[in-house]
Amino acid sequence: MNTHIDFAKIFFKVLKKKCYLNTFNFNSIIMKYFERKLLEELKKWTQRREILAIKGPRQSGKTTLLEMLREELEKEVGEENIVFLTFEDLEVREKFEADAKEFISSFIFDKARYYFLLDEFHYVKDGGQKLKLLYDTLKNTKFVITGSSSLELRGETAAYLTGRMFSFELLPFSFYEFLNARDKRFARIYSERNSLVENLINGQNFSIKEGSDIFVDDLLKLLDEFIRFGGYPEVIKSKRDEEKLIVLKNIINTYIDKDIIKFLNITDALKFKRILTLLSSICGNILRYEGICTYSNTYYKEVVHILDILQQTYVIDLLRPYHRNLVTELRKNPKVYFVDHGLRNYLINNFSELEVRVDKGALAENFILNRLKALVGDKGIIHFWRTTAKAEVDFVIEMPDRLIPIEVKFEPFKKEKVPKGLFSFIRAYSPAVAIVVTKNFLAEKVVEKTRVEFIPIVYF
Length: 460
Known about the structure:
Layout: H1 3-19, H2 27-30, H3 37-43, E1 51-55, H4 62-77, E2 82-86, H5 90-98, H6 100-105, E3 114-119, H7 127-137, E4 141-147, H8 155-160, E5 165-169, H9 175-182, H10 184-201, H11 216-229, H12 233-237, H13 241-263, H14 269-281, H15 289-296, H16 300-312, E6 316-319, H17 326-331, E7 335-338, H18 341-348, H19 360-376, E8 381-386, E9 392-398, E10 403-408, H20 420-429, E11 433-438, E12 443-447, E13 450-456
Parallel strand pairs: 1-4, 1-5, 2-3, 3-4, 10-11, 11-13
Antiparallel strand pairs: 6-7, 8-9, 9-10, 12-13
Helix pairs in contact: 3-4, 9-10, 11-18, 14-18
């Protein structure tokens, strides 16, 4: 046994905790960890050599996820082989930027495999080039990095790390994760129903009996809170509505101050926020570029640039129309939605219950889009559909071998009534399955050989 190395490892272990880990926000350790589905996915890739990049909006829980991953790794390799660094710490960042290889090598004492968890990596100057050097020269190391937007871990960073990096997205809590934090019983009940929808989208039968579901009303009450305040972890941890509003205000202000002004060098923050507020008021509607230009006194190219930033920083989603002619489709204006409902509601200053809101339909659509993105993943593309005669379907999932139209009607149904727009789509494309998302109605109807499933929103 090498006593000198053992002593050095013990000394370093203490030093690491004193000098570097104090930069980590230990509130996440004190707080109970909420389950994140992405953790299980990350664990599958820890034995491979490629760098893992966790992208997502600011305050979506990336730092906490890293700490959770660290605890899982400690069970396998021991804590002395895991190094957690945050580049929000100026001292850490300056030393890494000055000589990344020497700095990282100083943590390595033997030939064992080491894991480096690098938080807020986007702050590092020429980070992609430095990480490539580390990856190519330190063969027995594993790097996991985080960044607050795909802009930060794309571009130059991604160019240097082509073939060396796998990317993952950590978004605000899904409805399941929210339920799991609130009431595990209802999380299990929801998960059983959600798996049926997932099977339907994947081409399997929707195997559930028609009729009432005794748990729909309970799930609707929880959905109301989730849609009103959103899924940011700190919002979910907050007990009172006043706390939730303060957290959302802080998320908006931090996003504009750190991401927009400092990192992306957007000088006119007032104009940026003005456009953001306008988009929140037209959520679920077709975006008119001319109207945004006029409202914000902004040129078209600048509006397009700002919209791209809002997409890349996980604030909005722009949905393109479905059309057989791809060229025609790309010329059509998109519909705008928000990644987090709570953030959108804060921007319009409306946290009323869904039942009394004039925009409840748009919020229901937004929720369904976010869930469809998770259910479909990379297997298909999500569009909306609209004809020159203004027949419209909220969503069309385009799979390689089939289309699935989905219309959202957040209202009570007494019988199987197919909306006109959906009926037009069925006549035009003859899909095998179509879906009507309802408030609490569960049924099935065949229309011109298309099986139309009426499914409560809380199944998604």
